[in-house]
Amino acid sequence: MHMQLLHNNKVVIFDRTDFGSSNLSLPEGKCRYNDEAIKVDCTAHSILYGVATNTYRPLMVQTDVWCSSGAVNSNGTLIQTGGYHDGERKIRLFSPCNDEEEICDWTELSQNLTVKRWYSTDHILPDGRIIIVGGRSAFSYEFFPQNSNNNGFFNLSFLKETTDPKEENNLYPFLYLLPDGNMYIFANQRSIVLDYVKNKVIKEFPKIPGEKRTYPATGSSVMLPMKLVAGDLSPVVEVMVCGGANGGAFLQAKSGVFMPASRTCGRMRITDPDPVWVMEDMPMGRVMPDMLLLPTGDVIILNGASKGTAGWENAIDPVLYPVLYKPNEPDPSKRFTVLKPTTIPRMYHSAATLLPDGRILVGGSNPHVRYNFTGVKYPTELSLEAFMPPYLSPQHSHFRPSILTVEGPISYGQKFSITFMLGFSKPTKELMVTMIAPSFTTHSFAMNQRLLILDVVDVQQMSGFTQRITVCAPPSRNIVPPSYYMVFVVHKGVPGHSVWVKMQ
């Protein structure tokens, strides 16, 4: 249900705790004694997955994390908030460590959120704090750590205004930090800019045409790559929203009628003086899609269903085909490409995240109230898949750069150099350096996801097969909050394995 890549190349994966025991035992006699389903639970509902080794280790989460949210802070620690029942106001931490030297596990704070947060969205801020927005019947936001001068929450009437009777359709809102330091918030069909310092909505945008877009009429969204120019503190910002469901689809699904999912995507340059949505059609309709930014600056859309909405038993007809979207392709009819399908339906409660080698980790799917492995059309799915975008096909291997060194530390607005190797000695200028934040993915939205295309200052041929590219780091904390990021060198549209850098 939830995934977060950490800067030690491991992925924290976790699911709700109140379904009873899992098939994975906790180590060293650890048990939970506060479970809703059974009196004593000595099984794991979270794992730490090692990407390189394809191995996992059980973790102990103490309270119910069902439909919770998260963000990685400036130290690389996952701040994980909210959930269900005993977890609805909890704050949990997971800090990456070297498993060979120490065993890291979940820590749950005695401090609580001020409001119950179930289906909320988190985002890191320029000062390193986390903002937690919304949730079921929570028309407000708050911070972690809390402001010293305010120990409560801040009302946001926008969240109440975007709630549909009996359906909601405004949960897990889409959040993006803007270069001016304010927060873009999208819910249902509307979006605003919030000045969270002054607790004031400073702009509202036109409604996106067509269907509803946030949970349970679940579409997905990305902030398209920001192309940076040295010294420019105001890059163009464009938001993209795809898929979703018609109003009423949730109620219809409850009575066994599954309405077609939305085929439309909307793009809006929110930094324009008079922004408007520009609409496009995907090759197929999709509800509960996952949208991820690729190191090339393209977008991958995968998972989901073609009819219904999010929720138990609320969708049918899984969409097995990933779709590649090229935002910079001038011809709109050529932007979408349908790729080879999976054989595994990924419906409600599935997730996907970008890995440091450019693959996409895909897992989950549990569209039932309980874990149903047999006797249903869409069984609970326990497998993980690695989806390989076209740039990882063997025929492109000779274009793939291999990073040797990064000259740091990397500071805001300062130049830094990356030395890399290519499989041939011919100098090339067809190079791009991208910086990507690892996302917290759940319920079809990759929280905190952002991609920066860095300004290239110089490219030098160092030896027969080695080159050095010099770029400018992002100019401000508003554009890239302090934390860990994956840096990719992309050569002729083919990225190599990334390296982690810390912006501070």
UniProtKB/TrEMBL annotation:
Residues 1-391 form the Glyoxal oxidase N-terminal domain. Keywords: Signal. Residues 400-503 form the Galactose oxidase-like Early set domain. Gene3D superfamilies: Galactose oxidase/kelch, beta-propeller, Immunoglobulins. The keyword Signal applies. Pfam families: Glyoxal_oxid_N (PF07250), GO-like_E_set (PF09118). This is Galactose oxidase. It comes from Anisodus acutangulus. The lineage of its organism: Eukaryota, Viridiplantae, Streptophyta, Embryophyta, Tracheophyta.
